[in-house]
TrEMBL record:
UniProt xrefs under CDD domains: PIN_YqxD-like (cd18720)
Classification via PANTHER family: UPF0178 PROTEIN YAII
Chain segments annotated as coiled-coil in the UniProt record: none
InterPro entries named in the record: UPF0178
Name of the protein this chain belongs to: UPF0178 protein BZG73_12780
Length: 159
């Protein structure tokens, strides 16, 4: 079990939180981006720069993420693809994306894209506030607890 981060749109505050959590729990976090990403030093966090291009980072995450892993992304189509593989997905606002809610998110995304392409200014998301940062930290901690239990159970069964 490991953490994959769609790092191009991941706020610095969340990157730092992820690295601290990975270091504390000894769970690998890999940040994939089309550009250089600076991370706090940790043997449990790495940044990988992929070629520039549409969905190159997303495709890399889809190829490498496995059932039980965690993907952190704002990208709804990416979330949909990895959810199908049994991956847990949270966005940087702390929302858990699941098989039950991803279709509605895709529909909203497609609707907003249609609006923008027809010239309607839809604006962007509101800035991250303390509530979103706390929600993100809570969701990340829930997954980390689950991952640590899994690792402990595997270690115990191999004894």
């Amino acid at each position: 079990m490991q953490i994959w981060v769609d790092a191009d749109a991941c706020p610095v505050a969340m990157r730092e939180m992820i690295v601290r959590a990975a270091h504390r729990t000894h769970i690998q976090a890999t940040f994939i981006a089309n550009q250089f990403i600076r991370l706090p030093p940790s043997p449990y966090a790495s940044a990988r720069q992929v070629e520039k291009g549409f969905d190159v980072a997303d495709n890399q995450i889809v190829a490498e993420a496995e059932a039980g892993d965690l993907v952190i992304t704002q990208d709804i189509p990416l979330a949909d693809e990895v959810i199908e593989k049994g991956v847990t997905v949270i966005n940087t606002r702390g929302e858990l994306l699941t098989k039950e809610n991803i279709r509605a998110r895709l529909n909203i995304r497609d609707f907003m894209e249609t609006m923008r392409s027809s010239g309607v200014h839809t604006g962007g998301p509101a800035p991250l506030g303390p509530q979103q940062k706390q929600a993100f930290a809570n969701q990340l901690d829930k997954w980390l607890v689950k991952a640590q239990r899994y690792h402990a159970a595997r270690a115990k069964s191999s004894d």
